[in-house]
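Session log. Operator J.P. requested a structure for one protein chain; no other inputs attached. Running the standard single-chain path with token output.
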Amino acid sequence: MGNRQHGKYKKRSKSVITNRYGTIQKRKGRPKKTVQATCTQPNASHATSSGTEKTSASKRKLHNIRPNSCPSKDFSAASGYRFMDMDIISNILNKYATCPLCSCELTLMENSKLRRGFASVLHLKCENCYFSDTFSISQKILGEGKGDKPFEVNRRATMAFREIGKGHGAMTRFCAVMDMPSPPGKASLTKHNKALQDAYKDEAELSMNKAAQAVRDKFGGECGVSVDGTWQRRGYSSINGVVTAIELETGKILDYECLTRICKGCQHWSSKDQTSTEYLKWKADHKCHISHEGSAASMEPVGAKRIWNRSVANRNLKYTSKYIGDGDTKSYSAVCNDKPYGHIPVIKKECRIATITHDALLEVRVGADSIGTKLMAPTHTSILMAVVKELKPIYDDLTKDELIERCVDCYTQNANESFNGMIWQRIPKETHAGAMTLDIGVASATLAFNDGMQALLGVLQRQNMNPGTHTTENLKKLDEIRIQNAERQTSDKSIKRRKTLRRIKKGYEDKHLENEGVIYDPGMGD
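Structure written below.
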């Protein structure tokens, strides 16, 4: 049959792979590396009892995908929201709709004064008699507060743009391109965001409580967690940060802490007359959004202490069996010094990135008396004694038995890094985000991480909104796509292919560098 083409990659033989980068020869007879540690981290693929099949973390967490609400049909009762060309609708009504009183044609018009954001108010009028009818294209959300009830279409639109990390500016550009009326104003959007903030946080708290209940049922009142902090900006100048605790066995978030260093309201009124009636009225109703006073670097230790101190009260759990951290902050020492559980210690374990280094150093130590002895031998005259004097204490610290023992479980913080990415998808790093936006984004990421996109159904229901058929089906589809992608990426075939392509690309880039020389480097233009 000859060679078979798969996209841009062409398999020529069992030992040769060709693509646009060139040809690479697979190595034969290369011994496989063995790992002397037991990998127990939750974010690794779990093998089944047969030892050959793997399951991704996403599939384990999202195993309860809801079934379709109804079978798909070519024709069904119209529901939900649509983009419509009003000229077409108006022409159809003028052509087929008649006045119930005089059977004359009806004219469709819009009452711009009554329109509220995306909720247009339409008016049917008969030009021959006095008949007319006014209606809105969206129903209102009942049972929410006092006064005028908000329209559901505006709340859904605000929620949709928050899910993709956009706000009022993006909403206005969207309307401009789509030839739609202006979206809700900033004041109205703030009210919608406040309602969304409460619904998201309540649903996220419910999700974390369910995760904690699953841990208690399986392991009792103690568990291990992986803790990590993430910031909106780099360079320790961020005004927003998030600290997260993920349970090691279930891979679900048990708690998080949002920290922000500014309050826009306080900044605005700081330069005003603080004896005026307006200021005193604002001050009486204002709730400051500042949740952290100090540097951005200190956010992770502060957040970790808060999570540990409320673990028993909020989750009925003690995070004592394992503490997994990346070692770049003083979070662990801050938790230990705070003694959240009295005299019960919090045991620290190292993540896998440290394990690799320590395994390599341990092999060197086992193979020779010590690297320090070999370096200090008189035959190695090329190494300065001053360098050896500085290196040997570092080596001795890295090869201590108590440090190496903390690495043998091969834990990673891949789950934390994955969750951090989900947060900043919803809160772009290039734009300012206030405390309300931060709360919504982190709670949304928590729901998606723990329970999948279908958890948004609960957010809608908390606001007295019926999710609808299309919302349910599309959220289910997103979860199915997530599981499919995760299963594909964790398969042995996919992992092997990615490694091969990385080697091919590296050879391709090295070949260009050899032909062109160094053309981009500091000082090249001098």
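Operator note: The chain has four domains: 5-64+489-516, 86-177, 205-269+280-351+411-487, 354-405.
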